[in-house]
Specification:
Elements: H1 2-27, E1 37-39, E2 46-54, H2 61-70, E3 76-80, E4 93-102, H3 109-117, E5 121-125, E6 131-137, H4 141-161, E7 169-174, E8 177-183, H5 193-208, E9 212-213, E10 219-220
Antiparallel strand pairs: 1-6, 2-4, 2-5, 3-4, 3-7, 6-8, 7-8, 9-10
Biased composition (Basic and acidic residues): 251-263, 301-313
Keywords: Receptor
Region (Disordered): 198-313
Length: 313
């Protein structure tokens, strides 16, 4: 009788544990729907403090932890420039850091100096007119793992189905939501200077000098050349945007702008956002992100990830 009682107790505890795990997974977003839409961005122009990383995205957790430890009250942001399914992990590039200010408000000099003291660089991102976006709940660390396996495939499918040129891929962590954004305009303004530096290094001296003279003596740019763009008013003040390798004479805002490193290669062609039948408000109708929000962040994509600790208010 005692053996049966013991087995029943063990079975009951096991069932209770399974139910607890299931409830935890559901609370973390296991059954949350992923709605992808296109429209106006849920944020204005932002100034960020970031560190640039080249290597597997699974190694960026320490950067989130480091940026959160400098000022826990700020939101975390990550910009991923390469598709890890198409680019070797050791060559994947991203920028991870914190949002210092949004809109017309300028970050304080003390805050900038604090981040620069810990090796962060400061850069400004504009507010593009249109983006592809999705949100996912962030309630536990498991939410990051679930978002990586549910949101990014949905974004890829949406972009490919509509043949959009949408890149790079941004993640903004605010309170209990993760915002996933893919700009459809002004993409070049989201590329930090280090990205262009790695592209120049990757081209090497041979490709760097492949502008050849045509029959009239004028220089002609090859497909591997890099073309500098004039950045108009309202764009970032730090530097000019540069085209990715493989793009000749066309801006990032043009259609069919793809390279071996760009997310735009996930689409069959580069349709303009003007061709979209923009969905309703969806997640884009939510209030603007506030600069005082709690920082949360971690890398993405289907692989084992290191998860930064959630910042405390």
């Amino acid at each position: 009788m005692s053996d049966l009682l013991l087995l029943g107790l063990i079975g009951g505890l096991t069932l209770l544990l399974l139910l607890t795990l299931l409830a935890f997974a559901r609370y973390s977003g296991l059954l949350a729907g992923v709605a992808v839409s296109a429209g106006s961005p849920p944020f204005r122009n932002v100034t960020v403090a970031y560190k640039f990383h080249v290597g597997p995205y699974s190694e960026t957790g320490r950067l989130f932890t480091e940026s959160c430890s400098v000022c826990p009250r700020l939101r975390s942001i990550a910009v991923y420039y390469d598709n890890p399914h198409m680019v070797p992990p050791e060559k994947c590039r991203c920028a991870v850091g914190s949002i210092l200010s949004e809109g017309e408000e300028a970050p304080s000099s003390e805050l900038i100096q604090l981040y620069q003291k810990f090796g962060f660089k400061v850069f400004s991102f504009p507010a593009p007119s249109h983006v592809v976006t999705a949100t996912f709940p962030y309630t536990t660390a498991l939410s990051i793992w679930l978002a990586a396996r549910r949101v990014h495939p949905a974004l890829d499918a949406y972009i490919k189905e509509r043949k959009l040129c949408a890149h790079p891929r941004l993640e903004i962590y605010q309170r209990d939501q993760i915002y996933f954004l893919c700009p459809l305009a002004r993409q070049g303004d989201f590329y930090v200077p280090e990205v262009k530096a790695t592209e120049r290094k990757g081209r090497g001296p041979a490709e760097a000098s492949d502008a050849q003279m045509d029959g009239t003596g004028a220089d002609t740019l090859s497909d591997g050349s890099s073309v500098s763009l004039e950045v108009g008013p309202g764009s970032r003040e730090t530097s000019a945007a540069t085209l990715s390798p493989g793009v000749s004479g066309r801006s990032w805002d043009d259609s069919d702008t793809r390279s071996e490193h760009s997310y735009s290669e996930s689409g069959a062609s580069g349709s303009s956002f003007e061709e979209l039948d923009l969905e309703g408000e969806g997640p884009l109708g939510e209030p603007r992100l506030s600069p005082e929000a709690e920082p949360l962040g971690a890398p993405k994509w289907p692989r084992e990830l290191s998860t930064p600790e959630r910042g405390e208010e």
